[in-house]
Amino acid sequence: MSDFISDFWHLYVAGITLVSIIACAVLLYISGTTKAATHADNTTGHVWDGDLREMNNPLPKWWVYLFIITVVFALVYGALYPMFGKFQGALGWSSQGQHAAEVKKVEDAIAPIYAKYNGMKPEEIAADAQAMAIGERLFMNYCAQCHGSDARGAKSFPNLADGDWLGGSDHAYIKTTIAQGRTGVMPPMAAAVGGPEDVKDVAHYVLSLSGSPSDSVRASQGKAKFAACAACHGPEGKGMAAVGAPNLTDGVWLHGWGEEAIIRAVNNGFNNHMPPQAALLNEAQINVLASYVWGLSNKPASKQ
């Protein structure tokens, strides 16, 4: 792989590009100076369709000038902009630099809009109609792909519009999660619980915690084996926000409901990842977006 990032390829690309431009100029010169053998009537002797004769007329002047302009333009462009391998050009232009400049231009333009929300409390921002309109658009662009346009999530993607939170639910926690992302891990627990039948017993015990239909005999047998899970979910299965362990006694099932889903979770575990958004959103945008998400489950009175 190192062969493809060596300086040879930079020189190869630069050489091929420069030689191609020079070759075009040489071809133009040769075609304009070379005399073809012709007859007295300026024909070459080539005949098609019986009476269509090839003549040796010079290239039109406009065509020649256009060709020269094209060659000169290519050389000037290559001197000013990156075209010859790693050479950046006299202007130092780059697509990354242009993108950064355009992003800064947009951020400077929208900064006054976000500035008024910097000193406001989350509940005040969530009650501001303009702020929520901005937050909704940010959510649609950066969050709805996973959490849905209504923020109610889907299987393995949390519902942000209810009151069930795996971690914290305050504005600061939401801001941190948006900026830095979040990884939720449940290790496979089958070996700690026991064999396949033991896993099934635990599954029925977990179902019984939320009042879901379950086998009471298996549930009673699984209660003692649930001790392997209590380190995270707590002895009563009510979860621990500090480690992001869900409450198993409510009716919220992030990764699917029922015996099969629980058995799969115990056997395989989970490794969910929410990517950080700090590279895409600035601090002011994250503040408004976090207030929007906070407001989804707190529903403050709208302020016009």
UniProtKB/TrEMBL annotation:
It is found in: Cell inner membrane. Pathway: Energy metabolism; oxidative phosphorylation. SUPFAM superfamilies: Cytochrome c. The chain crosses the membrane at residues 12-30, 62-84. Keywords: Cell inner membrane, Cell membrane, Electron transport, Heme, Hydrogen ion transport, Ion transport, Iron, Membrane, Metal-binding, Oxidoreductase, Repeat, Respiratory chain, Transmembrane, Transmembrane helix, Transport. The keyword Ligase does not apply. PROSITE patterns: CYTC (PS51007). Its cofactor is heme c. NCBIfam families: ccoP (TIGR00782). Component of the cbb3-type cytochrome c oxidase. C-type cytochrome. Part of the cbb3-type cytochrome c oxidase complex. This is Cbb3-type cytochrome c oxidase subunit. The gene is ccoP.
